[in-house]
Amino acid sequence: MNPKIRAILKAAAKVMAQKGFEKATMDEIAKISKVAKGTLYYYFKSKEELFLKLTLSILEELEERTKKVLELKVSAAEKLRALIKVQVEFFLEFHEEVVLVLGDFFGSTLPRESFRVKINDYYRLINQLIAEGIKANEFREVNLEIFVPAFFGMTSFATIRGILREKGFLKEQLIDNLTEIVLNGLKK
Questions:
Q1: What angle do CA 167, 168, 170 make, to 5 degrees?
Q2: Which of 72, 117, 173, 185 has the most beta carbons within 10 angstroms of its beta carbon?
Q3: In the prediction, which pLDDT does 112 show?
């Protein structure tokens, strides 16, 4: 990704996470990203377009990291643990963006179809992993339509809660606990 666009997206996440989508201004985003306002509008015609690009870019990043986990030559259970670790670390790294997207996006009037498409692409990757575990007789049959969003929600919100609490947040303990909960739920 173009370094200017990356800086703009990071600045947009910071401003929008602090002020909310509605109160954030393109002027503030331009100032924090250290680009001229004209440059900002060159890349993004509106705040809505900028927000949508921010949303899609973080989902694409999560999807790419997940694909790498699925390529590992280990058991489905080990991949699931690796996936939980990837998700927790992703949410730690992009916590402003994630809080913004999960908060403002669901409550806004912004176009949601692109988000739905991207999140469904990500869900298909998790489906693939769980189906692999079921086929290998590592996991029991589960309703993937319920399991996959529950898995995503559990890992994302548990990590965000840990970040917001700050005091005593232990990443490895969270990864271990989430892995135990998920694997116990999939046990035959």
A1: 130
A2: 185
A3: 62
